[in-house]
Amino acid sequence: MSLSNKGKGVLRPTLLSAAIAASVSTSVGAYAQETEALEEVTVTGIRTSVLGSLEAKRAADVVADVVDAGALSSLPDQSIADALGRLPGVTTVRSNGQSSQLNIRGMNGDFLQTTLNGREQASTSGYTESTRWISFDQYPAELINQAAVYKSPKASHIEGGVAGSVELKTANPLDADKEHSFNANVRMSFNDAADEVGADEFGQRVALSYMGKFMDDKVGVALGYSNLEQPNSFVKSRTGADAQIGYEQGTDYDGDGSADALPRAFQWQSGNGIDTRNGYLASVVFQPTDNFKAQLDYFKSEFERSDTRHGITVGGLGNTGAYTLSDTEVNSGVVTDGTVNITDPKTIYDSSPWFEARSEDQSTQADSDSIGLNLDWNFGDRHTLAVDYSYSEGTKTRKDQIVSMHAYDLTTDGAGNLETWEEAAGQSFVYSLNGDGIPSGAFAGVDFSDLDTMRLSRYEEYPHEYTDEVEAFKVDYKFDLEWGAIASVEAGLRVSERTFDAERGAFLYGSRDGQFNGYCADNLSDIDCMPQQLDGYVAVESTNGLPQLVVTDMDALASSIFGAGNYEGKKVFSQDWTFVESGAVSEEVSAYYLMANIDTEIGNIPVTGNFGVRVVETDVKSSGIQNVGAGNGIEITDDVGVTSDSYDHVEYGPEYTDTLPSLNLTFELSEQDYIRFAAAKVMGRPPVGQLKGGAGSWNSVNSGGDTEYNVWTKGSPYLDPFRANQFDLAYEHYFEDGGALTAALFWKDIESLVEKQYIYLYDQTDRSALFESLGIEIPVGLEAGAFETFVNNDKGGYIRGIELAGTKTFDQLPGVFSGLGMTASYSYTESETEVNGGSLFSQNLPLPGLSENVWSTTVFWDIGSFSSHLNVRYRDEFILNMPIPGSFTPAEAQPYTTVDAQVSYAFDNGIDVIFSANNLTDEADVQSYGVDGSLGEYTEFGRQFYLGLNYSY
């Protein structure tokens, strides 16, 4: 048995966009101050969205890039992340083959602020920990009218965007051209790789919307619905499994005097499932007079991802003294080929290799609700008062269910009852790496599809639930005046309460490295530990050509073994992380701002912009469970009935104030040429998981034979926010016939970053003093040991770069070629900031999310009713934090290029026919685990094709 080698028209905007295409200039007002009317240029097709985005950028009073409603509906995007990822300095991070997280100017989602209609949004992106960054695939592109990336802030913006802020906007139905309008969008999808892993190749996208004006245009109603059902599938391989990641580098295998890199583990996996997303939007606007408007907005998104996986895992290769490794071949310091022979299968606590067939259910459910009420008064000709209330809630759950199956030598009595068992003897494994692509593997002494020898060895379930609630109230006041250079003054306040909560649990049965009589690593069930039969609950499938048993219904199998409902995740002291990783972080924020808007001239050069200051008061509190030592806590009983007095409830945290000045200036050198300058101090609060106050412990024996008491924490609420000073300088030239050339320089000075530190002082007296200073009591009979936590480091520094962008239409070309156009952007970013390299990298690493070179190019062609475009995007390698529970292990994502395309034809009856394709080159996600050119993680997702109709009335 072996695993194979494998290398790496006139478009009518859909939904709410159709009836409001003419309102782009109106909605830009949310981002910019008014400018003089420009000469009207009639354009069709993709040009409408491209040129509309440029006009919104031109009118902005901050350094910004905008994607208007036309672009969101015309590009082949299932979420707004792809559309935003084409902007200068903006890149995406793919999850399950889809763009989910944004990186801006070399900084990841931890440094972003995202709002919907100016309101802070709850997060649904948590996978192994609570997060504050937004999962953009939660937002259907069809329900968003306009999106902007603010790269420089102004005082009225909500704080938090160290890298930048993303503003999403839905439509005002009173701005629609028609009294009543209706849009329908239906697209069928096809994934060309789904069938290879047993997934359904076909899916669908359906979107419906209605906009109407009533009572002599005093009441407007907008309703929208978007449904997505499409396969998510992948083929993956990695040199890692569970906590064993990367390469062991302690042995010289080729005799050259240098240690060689040996994989610690292998996984081959196939994944299949269905993404189902339902998005709902409703807006009601009441504007009885020109001086008063009330608007109620509601947005809801439900995103279910069924995600089942199966494959083969080889674990324990890092324990090099517990098996024989022969037939090795070393290339460039890496053991690329070898034969593993298990010498003794009866070992405990993962101390020798093991081979297993594994099935997983990593399905997630993400639900988001947002509601907001805005009241806007204009009075006395010069006064504007706006009052806004908002509430946003997000919930993310993950199943995290794992079934491991091993080959056993079994002995039964005359009645067929199992008497003795141990892992099958004589198992061996031959592997051959294939660069950073999928390696080959062959097994002997084990048949992963043989029900006579294969049994369930371990059952695991680690339920995750993360919730986020944001409630806010704000008041904004604007006074128009003619006071020299000051055109108006704005002031306001915002108070908010935000609570992140997490619930973790575990159910464990059996042993990952296999059982034998007398050994079972974990058992939280009410039955005895032994290998369990699989008959009736498995089928034979294959991963990369190797047949293996796959559990067809993990819940049914668990119910047959443990009884229905008896395998739910529990909080238990034997796995005290289930207590420590649960808990909440709350933030109460009061913010005040004062800002002046500028409209003047210097010489003959018009100058506009704003300057102001925002004062932010933050009260952070973390609540959870800490291990305070035996006898020092209160009696707490876990979910299996064990009572302990080693733990206590804690709630603590700081209060701090930030003063954030900002300046934005735009110099209009001519009708086509602008220079922008911006300066600001910005702040963003640390990742939520690093603010938790819970703490756990473990014991270890030092070289002197003494037992040490070691403490680990999820973080500390006393971590300082990310704070930075930043400057922007931009030049923009706009062509009279449409298009632009822009260039921008930016520089950020970051004070400090957060990193994980393992502190173990050499002298025992020093360790005791450290624990005493931290308020940690050492249990009687133990000595102070290590302390592991997150801290603010002194590795701040600059992030600087340049962004270039250009858009050109070629109207001057003859005939059909006059419909050609192109838009392109390039950004270069560098930084001296560093974070700890973690377990895979001994050296310090660049800031997560930083790609030095990023570019995007779109070529579009409109010929009458026919429209087409092709987009190519590229980003350099960058550091990302792998989603590993309880860890922030960094990996290096390798460069990738994605290609998307779309063609459409518009008929006169309101129907458009559209064909689009995503990931045309089937670009894989490739990650390095610290050894250049060798497999870390390699994942392919396949190409996605869409064929559909738009209808507008």
Describe the structure.
The chain has 953 residues and is mainly beta. The chain contains 7 helices and 57 strands. It has a 22-stranded antiparallel beta barrel. A 5-stranded antiparallel β-sheet has the order 1-27-26-20-19, with no helix packed on it. It is globular. The relative contact order is 0.13.
Short characterization:
The chain has 953 residues and is mainly β.
Give the arrangement of secondary structure elements:
Layout: E1 2-3, H1 24-27, H2 46-59, E2 64-67, H3 69-74, H4 80-84, E3 90-95, E4 98-104, E5 112-116, E6 119-120, E7 146-150, E8 164-169, E9 180-191, E10 202-214, E11 219-238, E12 240-241, E13 244-245, E14 247-251, E15 260-263, E16 266-289, E17 292-305, E18 308-315, E19 323-331, E20 334-342, E21 354-361, E22 364-379, E23 383-398, E24 401-412, E25 418-423, E26 428-432, E27 440-444, E28 454-461, E29 464-483, E30 486-504, E31 507-510, E32 522-523, E33 538-543, E34 546-551, H5 554-562, H6 577-580, E35 583-602, E36 605-627, E37 634-637, E38 643-652, E39 655-668, E40 673-684, E41 695-701, E42 707-713, E43 722-734, E44 739-750, E45 754-759, H7 764-773, E46 783-792, E47 797-809, E48 820-831, E49 853-863, E50 866-875, E51 878-881, E52 890-893, E53 896-906, E54 911-918, E55 925-928, E56 937-940, E57 944-952
Parallel strand pairs: 5-8, 42-46
Antiparallel strand pairs: 1-27, 2-7, 3-4, 5-6, 7-8, 9-10, 9-57, 10-11, 11-16, 11-56, 12-13, 14-15, 16-17, 16-18, 17-22, 18-21, 19-20, 20-26, 21-24, 22-23, 23-29, 24-25, 24-28, 26-27, 28-31, 29-30, 30-35, 31-32, 33-34, 35-36, 36-38, 36-39, 37-38, 39-40, 40-43, 41-42, 43-44, 44-47, 45-46, 47-48, ...
